[in-house]
Design a protein that fits this description.
DNA polymerase, domain 1; 2 domains; 8-stranded mixed beta sheet; two-stranded parallel ribbon; 18% strand; binds adenosine monophosphate; binds manganese (II) ion
Length: 299
């Protein structure tokens, strides 16, 4: 398979690369096969499945991708606590069977169970009963997340949509918020690197941190073995995309690009509407020769 990737701004015919997406294995609404079908239908040429804290969808996604004739990148999105803040680190081109990665993800998923019980208890304090069972109605047996609580709250009429839930509930200062300790930044990076993968700081524009804190994070991320940053995210504004292109170049980080697709109701930006990486960035896929990517010179 030969894919022509334009690094120029002329994107109209360039095959699409989306390196951040979710399936029903975590908190997306499409099964891995349906997700691949969705991507293929939008002409995505390279898709990474990056479920939260789980790699269980990758086999199914790979089979579907082979049938659809698109390239699947093995991915994961690991929940991390850094200086009392929650961060997400995407791992790309991981080996899903790597034992330390498997064990690490399993321990994060186990932590989610107790956290869900605490979330339900907090909701109950505010008169919302049955949250735990309600959230599990929307979850699979592997992962319980705030998205599942959000779907429960919408279904019972507490909010009109997911976006409203994350304003009125489940966030700091609102009913259903709990604090939680995820993996350490260094651990997550070690699991990814140990499995042969590339650690990518996910959607940096979404972290509510000042400039100094961000610079400290980037320095620690690099020091710990981090290699890339999501410059283009479906959840970034155009300003954020520009800001993180500059950050990537200045810190010598590779640049990634992903929609963070979850579901038709929770799609930030359609996979086929993602902006190109700015030309000064080095794409994280620059040396993925085995995918048959052919990098066309910038026009
Ligand atoms: P958790 O990892 O259980 O804390 O759940 C986090 C997930 O909640 C994210 O991955 C998103 O899918 C979802 N989420 C968080 N904030 C929002 C928001 N403002 N709008 C929609 N979904 C959100
Ligand atoms: Mn999510
Ligand atoms: Mn995330
Ligand atoms: Mn995500």
């Amino acid at each position: 398979m030969i894919l022509t990737i334009s690094t120029s701004k002329n994107t109209s015919l360039a095959p699409l690369i989306d390196l951040h997406s979710h399936s029903t294995v975590s908190d997306g609404s499409l099964t891995p096969s349906e997700l691949v079908g969705h991507a293929a239908g939008l002409n995505v040429a390279v898709l990474a499945l990056t479920d939260h804290d789980d790699v269980a969808g990758l086999d199914e996604a790979r089979r579907a991708a082979e049938e659809a004739g698109i390239a699947l990148v093995n991915g994961v999105e690991i929940s991390v606590t850094w200086n009392n803040r929650t961060l997400h680190v995407v791992g790309l081109r991981i080996a899903p069977s790597f034992p330390a990665l498997q064990q690490g993800l399993e321990s994060i998923r186990a932590g989610r169970v107790g956290r869900a019980e605490r979330i339900a208890a907090e909701l109950a304090k505010h008169g919302i009963q049955g949250g735990l069972e309600g959230a599990y109605e929307f979850a699979n047996e592997r992962i319980i997340s705030r998205t599942h609580f959000a779907r429960f709250l919408v279904s019972r009429g507490y909010a009109k949509d997911l976006r409203t839930v994350f304003k009125k509930f489940l966030v700091k200062g609102k009913p259903g918020h709990v604090s939680h300790r995820w993996a350490e930044l260094g651990e997550a990076i070690d699991w990814i690197r140990g499995s042969g993968g590339i650690p990518v700081l996910a959607h940096p524009g979404r972290y509510d941190m000042g400039r100094t804190t961000l610079e400290n994070l980037l320095a620690e991320f690099k020091e710990a073995g981090g290699l890339a940053i999501e410059v283009i995210s479906g959840s970034h504004s155009p300003d954020m995309n520009r800001q993180f292109a500059e950050v990537a170049v200045r810190h010598g980080l590779l640049a990634s690009r992903g929609s963070d697709y979850h579901s038709p109701e929770q799609a930030y930006l359609s996979m086929d509407r993602l902006p190109e990486l700015p030309p000064q960035c080095t794409p994280v896929w620059h040396d993925w020769h085995d995918l048959g990517l052919h990098l066309a010179p910038a026009a």
